[in-house]
Amino acid sequence: MALLDVTGLTAHYGTSQVLFGMAFSADAGSCITLVGRNGMGKSTTVKSLLGILPSHCGEIRFNGESIGAWPSHRIAQAGIGLVPEMRQVFPTLTVRENLVATGRARGEGGWHLQRVYGLFPRLAERERHLGSQLSGGEQQMLAIGRALMTNPRLLVLDEATEGLAPLVRAEIWRCLATLKREGLTLLVIDKNIGPLARLADHHYIVEKGRIAWHGDSQALHADPKLLRELVGV
Fold first, then answer.
1. If pLDDT is split at 50, 70 and 90, which confidence band does 107 have?
2. In the prediction, which pLDDT does 233 show?
3. What angle (nearest 5°) sits at the alpha carbon of residue 13, between those of residues 10 and 14?
4. Residue 54: which pLDDT band, with cuts at 50, 70 and 90?
5. For position 1, what pLDDT does the model report?
6. pTM of the full predicted structure?
7. pLDDT exceeds 60 at position 217
8. 20 to 30 A Cα–Cα from 172, which one of 85, 156, 191, 216?
9. Three-class SS of residue 144?
10. Are 175 and 26 in contact (CB under 8 A)?
11. What's the CATH number where 209 sits?
12. Which CA distances in Å does 92 have to 120, 128, 132, 198?
């Protein structure tokens, strides 16, 4: 059974419909992607999944439960963690305060402060610095660490490497590979097809609020025309 199963999802901003029957799924321990050009509905899908934007039709099932009508806080408590676009760290809180603010225990082997520092040693070095004093890359590490402190079963990352220097991007991809090896289910939105293809088990290409194609990394790379026409690379 899939950990996440989305079927027939529609969503609107006012009178403007953005999603038209979105459908995708993720098995426990897998990594899936939503890829496509800007404005195609990827971030709207994330907002619907997290209860930030109400869905109008369709169903979102997580761990066997229908969560489409749940409020955002209940969805987070159920085990979906979000690393949002633009990071959204608390600028007037220290690194440590940002992390412990969202901390939630989940038994032996869960995420805690020292485990996050082990994944991102730079955060340990900057523990007493305010969120506003961090570089963009450090803020991204903090955003990921903050989401992990909620001890999610599914981690959703919306444009996790956008605008970052190459060395920092490589560090983020290393982190995601580590999380996948440890069995965390990942849903990743990103424009960097090469690293995505090495990381993910299955890809969904979004075009005008629908899934236009889906398949594994081998199938994705086997069709350059597909990448050019639907992803723009």
1. low
2. 55
3. 115
4. confident
5. 72
6. 0.94
7. yes
8. 216
9. helix
10. no
11. 3.40.50.300
12. 21, 11, 7, 37
Q: Is residue 140 part of a domain?
A: no
- DSSP conformation letters of 145-192: HHHHTT--SEEEEESTTTT--HHHHHHHHHHHHHHHHTT-EEEEE-S-
User: For residue 205, what are its two tokens?
Assistant: 């290409």
* Number of domains within the chain: 1
Amino acid (1-letter code) at residue 146 = R
| Assigned domain for 32 exists | yes
Confidence of residue 96 (pLDDT cuts 50, 70, 90): very high
24 inside domain: yes
Domain membership of residue 52 as a residue range: 1-78+194-233
Q: Specify the 3-state DSSP secondary structure of 131.
A: helix
Sign of the torsion angle spanned by Cα atoms 142, 193, 37, 163: positive
Residues in the chain: 233
Residue 224 lies in a domain: yes
